[in-house]
Specification:
Blueprint (H helix, E strand, L loop, with lengths): L13 E7 L4 H10 L4 E7 L4 E6 L4 H11 L5 E5 L3
Amino acid sequence: MTNNADVIDYTDVYRIVIKVRREDIVYLNGIFESYDNLAIIRTIDRWESIVEILASPYFVSDVKRILEELKKEIQLEIIEEPR
């Protein structure tokens, strides 16, 4: 019998919305693709360069750490993030 405490709820997804330069969207996507299954990157508005990052609750801190490092390389503004 499975204890409910051991069941992982995969419906929880954390959404981080960022704004980058249009030419950096492909670079951003490549960085996150290199970390297999860390997060999903989706372009919300290609004209405004708004991108959303969908991550498991278990990887949110890793995603935030990567974004902080990327701020040293590219223009990146976090518009919305989980609390």
